[in-house]
Amino acid sequence: MARAAGFSTILPPVPSGELIFANVLDERQRAVDGEAADGFVYLLAPGTRAFPFHVVRDYKAPTGYLAEEVQLIAPSGRIAHRVGPRAAWLSGMMDLTRLEDRIDDTPFEEFGTYLASFLLDGELLGQTEFSVVLQAAPEKLPKEYEDGFRKSDVIWVGVEYKGKDVTIPAWFAYRNGRVLLLSSLEPSLDEQSVPGVPDAKDMVIITRRKLRETALDRIHAAARILEGPEWEAAAALLADRRRSRPGPPQDAIKRWRGTCAIAELTPILP
Asked: Which CATH class for the 143-268 domain?
């Protein structure tokens, strides 16, 4: 009697879970329109950090810890930001597990439509789109920030490096919601050399209480290097602002041409 040929059944892999809802949206937008609104993330300029935004997602998955990862993928296909992978506790298939992150330190180089990909244990469970768009900077800051700039002759300014601030006390001019900052292109005893100028797009500003060595506000700012007529106009304002300037303003401006950069810093406020 012939024996039946042996066989095996290959079962499809059991999915790690199910993505029920996900969104990526600006913190202010979420507060006004709710978390189900079309997602937007706002920048002041390419390469600067975004205004604070939230990544919200709901899963159904077996009870226990799973490795969760979120990838924010730019229009070019590059991963612009990654959350995780990290262990996340899932409450079980009968319940929704809400996970969310507030992100306030991520720069974006590209505008346009992004994809947020959500993975559990390396398996892609779903994606959602959101848009990274340009936001016009206000010409006036809230009163507490305006006072911090108008009532001080010096700010501490520089860059954040490996989680620490690298800043110097610097004189500056303030106009229409923006800080104007002069920095020597080469180390100099004649002019201040500010860390991050002219290359950094994201800088740190710390204002001080007048006549006291205590911090008032620490904020990030989008940096833009001025050129041509904008440089000339800013130089005139800075020369007038500099109280310790030797000689007439025109002499200082002439000395700065070709040797100093002028950065325009736009505060990124929550």
From this structure: mainly beta
